[in-house]
Every structure is written in C-alpha cells, then in structure tokens.
C-alpha cells in the first residue's frame, strides 16, 4: 500500500464537504455506505443519490440550535420526494407547501392536514378552497385581496386554519443571496402598511393571529438571521397590539444557507444558538408572545448537503485548445448547477470526478451536458482531473433546488431517478422518467399540418 498523497488534490471547500457529509470516502466517493460506482452501475446514470444519514445530521443540527419547543416545518419546494417528506415527518416536522400540487403531495405522503402550512403568493380560489376543505393547519395570507377571497370562500363554513399575515419588512433586515425584503415585492404586505392591512382583513371577517416573515434564502451569516428573527418578534408584538389578542403563531421562515463556493463558510450554528437563547428569553417574558408557537420552515439547509448528482462522461474532446468532457446529464436535471437559476455570474458548484477523488487536477475542464445549448455547462474551467470516458462526475450540494428546480422536459431526456442510501442499503425512491411520457399527453392534431391552423372545431 502506498501512503495517501501529502496534499489533498481536491479544492478545500470540496474536501471539507466530503469530510463533513461523506466521511467514508477514499479514492471513490461513498454515499450512505455505498460507493458511487456501484450506485451508478445498479441504477444507471444520470441520477441523484441521497445520504439518509446526512439528512438526519442536518435536521439534528437545526434542532440543536433552536430553543426547546420551536417547531420545524420542512419547506418541500426544495425537494418534494415523498420519501423525504415521510422522513422529515417521521422526525416530527410539519410540511410547508406553496401550491395545490404540493399540498396534494404532502397529504398523499401521509402528512396530517393540520401539520401543513400553506404559504405563497397568488393562491387561486381553487387552491384556497382545497386548503380549507382539506383542513390545513395554517394559512399564510400574502395580501388583503387574497384575504378577501378567502373570507368569501369560507363565509358560512368553518375555517379551522390559523391565519398568519406575511410581512415584507423594511430595508433594515435584508440578507441572503436572493433578497425579498425592503423593496417592492409580491411577497406579503409592506411593513409600512401592515397595521392597516390587519384592520382591513379584520373587517373582511377574518382574524389574523399569526405573523410570517421570510425575507431571503441562502443566508450564511448568523447575525443576519438573528436580526430578522428579532424583527419578526417585534412585528408580532405590533400585531398583538393592533388586534388586542396574544399572537398564536410566529413563523420566522427558512433561509439557512449552505456553502457552495470557495469563499463561503458554513453557517455558525453555535453563534445562532447563542443569539436565540436571548431572543427566546425576551419572547417568553412577553405575554403577547409567550404562548405563541414559533415555527421555522427551512428547505435548503435540511436537504442540500445530502444530495449528489452523478453523471457519466460520454465523450472527451478538445476544441481550439479547450478540453470538453460531455456528460450524460446536465442543466435539464440541475439548472442551478449550470448557473442559470438566479446566478448572474456563473460559478461552479462543488464538483469532483467521484471515482478518482485522489487524482490531481489537470488543466481546466469544461464539464458540459448533452443539451444543444451553450447554457448546458455544469462546470466551467473546472479544477478536476482530466476526465476519461466512463468516469463519474459528481455535483455536490444537490439535495435542494436541484431536480425540483430544473426544466426536466427540455430536450426530452428521461427525468433522473432518485436513490436513497443509508447504512449500506440503497433504495430507489423515484423511478427514471420514461421518455414515452412525453407522448402520453399529446392529442392528435388532425388538420393542423394540412392547413397550418387547427380545425374550427
Ligand atoms: C422557499 C421557501 C422556504 C424555504 O427557503 P430555504 O431558503 O430553502 O430555507 C420557506 N418558506 C417559504 C414561504 C418559502 O417560499
């Protein structure tokens, strides 16, 4: 046996992530106790693999940082796989949904309706009616207009849901990669006219007993989160003062970040926990807030680090001096990693050739997908070993906003399967999409080809 190399050839942020979440890896990445080569062989590529232990570790880390009694609702838009919903439900989480489709998936996964929070702008009458009928535990109102439509729907019937109002706060509490506070926004009611909105909703016949604040995602600074939470409690006090009733629920949103890029460090959970002790002492000493349930609804933090997207190298070619490795997967499965989901400057997600973690990096590599568009690149000038046909490329931080936020239909490749791996056991939790599915919703277009226009009827 030769000694391991003295200097780890992986970039430090990739090495740190592997040490944190996939510590049993040697020269080959090991996810949930199974080497990725074996997973790729058994389930085919491209695919998403999830380490069940890493989900559990993330959930534990959140709970350990929170004051006792605070509740966790998993924000399912990060990754709606039913197995994942059931996993978090089994660990005591509720589920936060933001569409009728998400609500149906949460209920189908076995989530009791009263453990659902329904948020999101633009809930249609159909969605509001479905939420009322299903008996969801909490509805977050995003505007006075939405509240009026809900009041009409619920008129005469019984509305069991707790109602919270979402506030778009002033500029003082901004933070995160995607800011949603302090500027014009479709989310919530502006802080400047928040009390008026509460009055208007009351005169529509609904009583608001909760406050919802969620102002930004991918926040890596504990102080930013603490400032937002402090502001959320302050708004909740104002709500109680306006209604004359104690607040029943305060939802402080999601937004906890994970490091993607070399200059980013993980969220300082110890600092967050320390700050929360003080906030919680102030809250419980205030009769307006003492009996409220306090909720956090993270998505990304709970799921991102457990997931790896695996794609196989199908071709390696050189064009005008640059080396291109062409993968069997790409932006249609992982839009965020291609830099086309909200990034203005494309930066590479953490990447590696996961069957040769100890191979030194060669010249910079263009890691591209199979789609006929130059947007389909998962790595630009990537510092990885020169790929060989048959190698496995891995994109880390792929448990959140990856498959779920991608244009799966673009170019009509099959949708990628998802595999859950824990303690050496791998289970398929979502099948590879059948390309024939693209044919099932098509209607015969008799007459179009001949006339260039559909038939009149
Ligand atoms: C997206 C979303 C979340 C989750 O955000 P993360 O940054 O993934 O934690 C929570 N609440 C609402 C209302 C959301 O829309």
TrEMBL record:
GO terms for biological process: lysine biosynthetic process via diaminopimelate. Keywords: Decarboxylase, Lyase, Pyridoxal phosphate. The modification N6-(pyridoxal phosphate)lysine is found at residue 77. Gene3D superfamilies: Alanine racemase, Lyase, Ornithine Decarboxylase, Chain A, domain 1. One of its GO terms (molecular function) is diaminopimelate decarboxylase activity. CDD domains: PLPDE_III_Btrk_like. Residues 48-399 form the Orn/DAP/Arg decarboxylase 2 C-terminal domain. The active site is at 372 (proton donor). Pfam families: Orn_Arg_deC_N, Orn_DAP_Arg_deC. Residues 59-304 form the Orn/DAP/Arg decarboxylase 2 N-terminal domain. Its EC number is 4.1.1.95. Its cofactor is pyridoxal 5'-phosphate. The keyword rRNA-binding does not apply. It is an enzyme of class 4 (lyase). InterPro entries: Ala_racemase/Decarboxylase_C, DAP_deCOOHase_LysA, De-COase2_C, De-COase2_N, Orn/DAP/Arg_de-COase, PLP-binding_barrel. Belongs to the Orn/Lys/Arg decarboxylase class-II family. This is L-glutamyl-[BtrI acyl-carrier protein] decarboxylase. It comes from Alienimonas californiensis.
């Amino acid at each position: 046996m030769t000694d391991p190399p003295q200097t780890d050839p992986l970039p430090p942020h990739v090495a740190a992530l592997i040490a944190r979440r996939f510590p049993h890896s040697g020269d080959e990445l090991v996810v949930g106790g199974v080497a990725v080569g074996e997973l790729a062989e058994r389930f085919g590529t491209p695919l998403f693999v999830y380490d069940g232990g890493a989900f559990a570790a993330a959930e534990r880390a959140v709970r350990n940082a929170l004051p006792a009694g605070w509740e966790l609702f998993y924000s399912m838009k990060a990754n709606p796989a039913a197995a994942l919903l059931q996993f978090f439900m089994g660990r005591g989480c509720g589920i936060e949904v933001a569409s009728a489709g998400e609500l149906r998936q949460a209920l189908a996964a076995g989530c009791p309706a009263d453990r659902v929070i329904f948020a999101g702008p633009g809930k249609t009458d159909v969605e509001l009616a479905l939420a009322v009928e299903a008996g969801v535990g909490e509805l977050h109102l995003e505007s006075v207009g939405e509240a009026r439509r809900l009041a009409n729907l619920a008129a005469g019937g019984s509305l069991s849901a707790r109602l919270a109002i979402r506030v778009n706060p002033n500029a003082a509490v901004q933070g995160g990669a995607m800011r949603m506070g302090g500027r014009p926004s479709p989310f919530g009611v502006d802080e400047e006219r928040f009390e008026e909105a509460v009055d208007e909703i009351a005169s529509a016949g609904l009583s608001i007993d909760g406050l919802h604040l969620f102002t930004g995602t991918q926040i890596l600074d504990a102080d930013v989160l603490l400032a937002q939470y402090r502001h959320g409690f302050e708004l909740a006090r104002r709500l109680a003062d306006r209604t004359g009733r104690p607040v029943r629920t305060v939802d402080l949103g999601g937004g906890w970040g994970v490091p993607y890029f070399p200059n980013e460090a993980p969220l300082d959970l110890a600092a967050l926990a320390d700050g929360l002790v003080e906030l919680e002492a102030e809250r419980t000493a205030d009769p307006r807030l003492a009996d409220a349930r306090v909720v956090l609804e993270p998505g990304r933090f709970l799921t991102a680090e457990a997931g790896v997207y695996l794609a196989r190298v199908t071709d390696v070619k050189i064009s005008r001096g640059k080396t291109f490795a062409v993968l069997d997967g790409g932006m249609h499965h992982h839009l965020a990693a291609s830099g086309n989901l909200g990034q203005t400057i494309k930066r590479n997600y953490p990447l590696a050739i996961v069957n040769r973690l100890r191979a030194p990096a060669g010249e910079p590599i263009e890691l591209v997908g199979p789609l006929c568009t130059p947007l389909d690149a998962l790595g630009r000038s990537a510092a990885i070993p020169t790929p060989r046909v048959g190698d496995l490329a891995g994109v880390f931080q792929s448990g959140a906003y990856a498959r779920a936020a991608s244009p799966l239909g673009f170019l009509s490749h099959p949708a990628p399967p998802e595999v859950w791996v824990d303690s050496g056991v791998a289970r398929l939790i979502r099948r590879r999409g059948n390309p024939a599915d693209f044919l099932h919703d098509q209607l015969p277009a008799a007459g179009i080809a001949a006339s260039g226009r559909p038939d009149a009827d």
